[in-house]
Amino acid sequence: MKVCDIDRNLMYSVLQHGFRALQVQPHVVELGVCKGDNAQQLLQRLNPAQLVLVDSWSTASNRDYCPFDPLPSWIDPPEAYDFYFGGPTWEQATWDRLHDGCQQRFAAEPRVSIVRSPTADALPAVRQLNQGAPYDLIYVDASHQYEYVLRDLMLYQELVGANGAFMLNDCCFSDAGLRQNLGVLEAVGNFLKRSDFTPVAITSTDWSDVILARKGSLLEQALHWSLVNSDVAFVDIPAQLLPAARLVHGDQRAHLSFV
After folding, report:
1. Which of 98, 111, 229, 246 is deepest in the core (most CB within 10 A)?
2. In the chain, how many domains are there?
3. Residue 188 belongs to a domain with what CATH number?
4. Domain of 71, in residue numbers
């Protein structure tokens, strides 16, 4: 696994080089859309043939946030992050505004399909939108709680092609992530034990992004050579160290540590 000194957007460029080497214009799914900012980057950076956006835009995400009532002292309540969503997350009107904004944002883009549904329920519709053919990239960024991330990976792996990939955000341990009850890193570690996916590259940044490809796939090889032949600074480490990833803050910036 390559620990790369780049951000998410440059990691998309690495992915684009990998797909280009395989002569693929990717078919892409994003699970968890919110305002559509990352979907816009997927369009611009990857130039996909198809982009399927899946989000429930529902207050149900608050109910899934943590099973304990009252919340443990180390977890912030969901309303602590209302500012990010532009309104109270316990009010359905906030989510409706986000959904409507996304629809308007991509209304003129024929490559984009929007599925308003919980990710597990959306699986048949997502499969049908590509006529049963596999997808090249599924970006998993819906519920960040452990059980839900693991479920998304387990369910959607059947839609990832032999030379396809998952990409996930927030795949490291951090104090800020702890406050939000994030379980992405732990879910990925569990999923890797159950599947034929392996971590190929991760950004050495806050809210780290990781790419998972199938072991021995052509895409895994293409991404390797894309990075080796680029000016991206990286270090190779054993993939088994991924579950140890934690964020360390220095005076100038944050970076990943595995010790």
Report:
1. 98
2. 1
3. 3.40.50.150
4. 2-257
